[in-house]
Amino acid sequence: MIASSAAAPDGMTAGYLMLVLLSATLTDNILLTRFLGMCSFLAVSSQLKAAAGLGLAVLFVTTATAGLNAALYHYVLVPMHAAYGVPLGLQFLLFIVVIAAFVQLLEMVVERVSLGLYYALGIFLPLITVNCAILGACLFLVNKGLGVVDGLAFGFGSGAGWMLAIVAMAGIRQKIKEEHVPAGLQGPGIALIITGIMALAFIGFSGMVQF
Questions:
Q1: Rg of the chain over CA atoms, in angstroms?
Q2: How far apart are CA 8 and CA 24, in angstroms?
Q3: Which of 33, 64, 121, 180 has the least CB density, counted as fewest CB within 10 Å?
Q4: pTM score
Q5: With the C-alpha atoms ordered 89, 94, 99, 100, is the resulting torsion angle positive or negative?
Q6: Could you tell me which residues come within 8 angstroms of residue 37 by beta carbon, excluding any fewer than 6 positions away?
Q7: 208 and 5 in contact (C-beta within 8 Å)?
Q8: 171 HSE (CA, 13 A, CB side)
Q9: 29-45: per-residue pLDDT in tens?
Q10: Inter-axis angle of helices 148-176 and 188-203, to 10 degrees?
Q11: Alpha carbons 132 and 66: distance in angstroms, whole number
Q12: Which pLDDT tens digit goes with each residue over 160-211?
């Protein structure tokens, strides 16, 4: 069933927020329809535990930074632009600083809570800072005119969509380890083919949920 598009209401309803979340997770999946965050996706998706851990990390950082960056943009940067002519282009620097701070906090927590997961994620945990999927989610919510609340829903949906994609890929890659894969397609080759097939499936959702 095709859902009709909906503009952001003045008083946001649970239905509208669910629409934003589902759109970010499925029909506008930040990895499989926009292909952001591909480096860590391909590198970490060979192991299910590491993929799930990184997916949770990206989900947390994307949700937290989307809400905070939306608040900073609308309540700090935009008023300063109107009052003092501060360029809105500073959003890039502002968003990256917020993302870096959250990733640093997350890295410290993971190291204390699960040292095994910390070493399994390796360099890709601090590299969440430059994961273009997280920065992309923050920029997309600004371009879509979302506020703090629906920006949180969009950030959560974007992170959930990225996590869904990497966990699904890890499960498939573990299964094909037991199958015969031609030598020329082993490793990144077969991973890119699977990614393309998954992307076709998610692109099939396009137009079903819009906001």
A1: 18
A2: 15
A3: 180
A4: 0.87
A5: positive
A6: 30, 31, 58, 131, 132, 133, 134, 136, 162
A7: no
A8: 8
A9: 999 999 999 988 988 88
A10: 130
A11: 13
A12: 999 999 999 999 988 887 777 787 777 778 888 899 999 988 887 776 666 6
